[in-house]
Design goal:
Helix 1 packs across helix 3. By secondary structure, the chain is α+β, with helices and mostly antiparallel strands. The chain contains 5 helices and 7 strands, in the order E-H-H-H-E-E-E-H-E-H-E-E. The chain has a single domain, classed as Aminopeptidase (3-Layer(aba) Sandwich), CATH 3.40.630. The protein has a 4-stranded antiparallel β-sheet, sandwiched between helices. A 3-stranded antiparallel β-sheet has the order 5-7-6, covered by helices on one side.
């Protein structure tokens, strides 16, 4: 079930984000992700429109949007590759006409996931905080055929 984020979900979301970040971004020092925990809790999640995916009343993933920008899409590492990410992404595609996101160039599995879900690479950039190369990707609903 997808529902609106509740404050009581915060610990689960931060844990899912942290473990997912360590796994997906092995090319960035773990200390960086540790240093971002409080910002996720106090700044990034509260400033976004966040929906959670639950199963048997346990949060297994979440998606955070800031307008048409996909700020976060994370699935519990034990629940990945079972359609949860696509389910959350499709939920937002129903609500938005375009979606943009940034993904690290070295995060090949995420790039494959987004390409498979009709996102295209628009630009190559450098993340100022990590100095890692990243792609700006976009999905345009007007050209999307399901």
């Amino acid at each position: 079930m997808i529902r609106v984020f509740e404050e009581s979900d915060m610990d689960a979301l931060v844990a899912i984000w942290y473990e997912g970040s360590l796994q997906a971004h092995h090319f960035i020092d773990a200390d960086y992700w540790e240093s971002q925990i409080m910002d996720m809790r106090e700044k990034y999640i509260p400033m976004s429109e966040t929906h959670v995916l639950t199963t048997h009343s346990k949060v297994i993933g979440f998606i955070s949007m800031v307008d048409n920008y996909l700020a976060a899409l994370f699935i519990d590492t034990e629940c990945q590759n079972k359609g949860a990410g696509k389910q959350l992404l499709d939920f937002e595609k129903e609500r938005k006409s375009t979606i943009q996101l940034k993904v690290y160039k070295e995060n090949l599995s995420a790039i494959r996931f987004y390409k498979k879900n009709s996102f295209v690479i628009k630009e190559e950039l450098t993340d100022e905080q990590t100095e890692q190369r990243e792609y700006l990707m976009e999905w345009n609903g007007s050209s999307y055929i399901s």
